[in-house]
Design brief:
heterodimer, A: mainly beta, Neuraminidase, about 35% strand, B: mainly alpha, Cytochrome Bc1 Complex, Chain D, domain 2
Chain lengths: ~425, ~140
């Protein structure tokens, strides 16, 4: 009699415990068995959130878990894809809007800001961070220049009502013949007046263009990854450094030097800064600012000290496309307020092996980089051989932080969206 | 001249369906090893940095040279890409590529012929060789 009475009670409490455990685990999705093919530090896991079949660039994840992705090319006439996650962390497309391609997307104070390759829009959000009217955004910036290369307009906002927009320059190094053999630099590089910099606009004024904006920082060839550092209230950007040192200047740079120069630089910007493109490049081997060969450089001559020094220098040609300061609580303490950088991967290192195709972590303290960067998430390429050849499976591009502190990474090659979680107790 | 017409005709047919198996007309004469060796040398020096060792190019930036309509197609048009470069927006077999190709008019007629012949017989391509005379003609013709 006693026994018969005990069993159901035991079963019940067992079921309750199981349910309770399941509930606490279900907050954190189970990583894919192979961690989505990624190589991660111990204790981290990854899952594929979605295969979008599109070219997702930058990404926003709202506190409610809605995912907005800006697409490099419109899919089904939509340039912004909306996804919702299931409890298992897998997401499906639930909508889309905006008929323009582009890269930039950012959420701030009740608005979603997006960019085409010539304009910036904002969409009002409701209290669940849903776009209220996808067909009627406010056009806040218009008429930005766009060339065939470096045409994307990444964006981020500060805490004082300003939006910062990258205007990349449609040139490699301002040569008379772009990427030409021994072609000299155009004196003074007139392209700098309306490109190759970060422009600042008001977040709530309609139809601004060059006349209403401020050239906040100049001499930046092309920026794709950028973020606002909340600790010291400062804009940080990742520049895509110049190409073709060997193919344009074979007498000065051999193939190996050309593959290792110049560094891809992280810059901490203040208003009025000039990073020196096209007159100089940063040599991450000598750790010096060097005069560009188009402007009289000989690989050794140092550039004017007035040009901005990088905060951190990374390997050449690795194409930093995403920058995110991590403010979440999921990852271990060392990651707090540090920078994640998504490197899309190189092409201009050939015939040397290609490099990149990874997400890097750079520790920060009080808004300043401290210590050496490390590769955080690797093997987007699929194998070291694929990375070396450049014939890769995936290319990391955009980064976002989820409401629980997960790190989201887009791949604009195959269209995968990844989520990286920390699951060590 | 007759030869040129035949070649252009043949390669136009090819370019119409670049993804298909080789068309039977592409019966190329054996190209001399010397031409291929010189072509490869020119390719390695001036083309490889952007179009890559495997001719596959770079997604969204530098076009591939593998069985595309440009490479297999009209010889004069292809020669002019080398001589004059390519700076207008280009869509190749449904993909777009953003980087500018600078002019390579500094190459000799022989170098242009050899590198194009190398490209047209490498990376899985099988298209007729480019003759020095064709390069000369394209260079003197109106741009």
């Amino acid at each position: 009699m006693k026994r018969k009475f005990l069993w159901p009670a035991l079963l019940l409490s067992g079921a309750f415990l199981t349910l309770y455990a399941f509930k606490s685990i279900s907050v954190l999705p189970t990583p894919d068995p192979d961690n989505a093919g990624l190589v991660l530090p111990q204790g981290f896991g990854a899952l594929k959130v979605a295969e979008t079949g599109a070219k997702p660039r930058h990404i926003v994840v709202t506190p409610q878990g809605t995912i907005y992705v800006k697409l490099a090319r419109v899919k089904d006439n939509k340039g912004i894809m909306v996804l919702q996650e299931n409890k298992d962390g897998k997401a499906q497309v639930t909508g889309g809007f905006g008929d323009y391609p582009g890269t930039g997307i950012y959420r701030k104070d009740g608005y979603l800001y997006t960019s085409s390759n010539t304009e910036v829009f904002r969409y009002k959000l409701n209290d669940k961070n849903e776009v209220i009217d996808p067909t009627k955004p406010e056009k806040i910036v218009t008429g930005l220049k766009m060339g065939r290369q470096h045409e994307t307009k990444s964006l981020v906002l500060d805490n004082d009502g300003n939006v910062y927009v990258n205007i990349g320059v449609n040139s490699n190094s301002c040569q008379e013949q772009d990427r030409g053999l021994r072609s000299a630099g155009i004196p003074g590089c007139p392209l700098l007046d309306s490109m190759a910099g970060i422009w600042q606009f008001k977040k709530d004024k309609l139809n601004q263009s060059y006349g209403q904006g401020i050239r906040y920082a100049s001499g930046l060839r092309n920026v794709v990854g950028l973020d606002w550092n909340q600790q010291n209230n400062q804009l940080f950007v990742m520049q895509h450094g110049r190409d073709n040192l060997n193919s344009s200047w074979p007498e000065l740079y051999n193939e190996k030097e050309s593959a290792e120069l110049p560094a891809e630089c992280l810059y901490a910007l203040k208003k009025g800064d000039n990073a020196g493109w096209p007159f100089m490049y940063y040599d991450g081997v000598q750790n010096k600012k060097i005069v560009a060969p188009e402007y009289g450089g000989d690989k050794k001559k140092e550039a004017d000290a007035k040009y901005l020094d990088p905060a951190v220098a990374f390997p050449a040609h690795t194409a930093p496309n995403g920058l995110l300061f991590y403010t979440g609580n999921m990852f271990p303490e060392k990651y707090k307020n540090g920078a994640f950088i998504a490197f899309h991967g190189s092409w201009n290192r050939a015939p040397e092996p290609q490099k990149g195709f990874f997400v890097v972590f750079q520790p920060f303290k009080d808004g300043k980089p401290v210590g050496k960067w490390e590769i955080f998430a690797d093997n987007f390429a699929g194998s070291p051989e694929k990375a070396a050849s450049g014939r890769v499976d995936h290319r990391p591009c955009g980064l976002a932080q989820g409401p629980d502190g997960s790190l989201y990474v887009t791949d604009d090659s195959k269209g995968t969206i990844y989520r990286i979680v920390y699951n060590k107790k | 001249m007759v030869l040129l017409t035949i070649m252009v005709g043949g390669s136009t047919q090819l370019s119409a369906q670049t993804k298909s198996k080789q068309a039977p007309v592409a019966k190329t004469k054996a190209v001399s090893a010397a031409v291929l060796a010189n072509g490869k040398k020119v390719y390695t020096k001036y083309c490889l940095a952007c179009h890559m060792a495997d001719g596959g190019g770079v997604q969204n930036m530098n076009p591939p040279l593998i069985k595309t309509s440009y490479v297999l197609g009209n010889a004069t048009k292809l020669i002019k890409v080398i001589l004059n470069g390519m700076s207008e927006g280009v869509e190749i077999d449904g993909e777009t590529y953003t980087n500018i190709m600078p002019p390579h008019g500094f190459l000799t007629d022989q170098e242009v012929a050899d590198v194009l012949t190398y490209v047209r017989s490498s990376f899985g391509n099988k298209a007729p060789a480019i003759k020095v005379a064709e390069v000369k003609a394209a260079r003197t013709a109106k741009k």
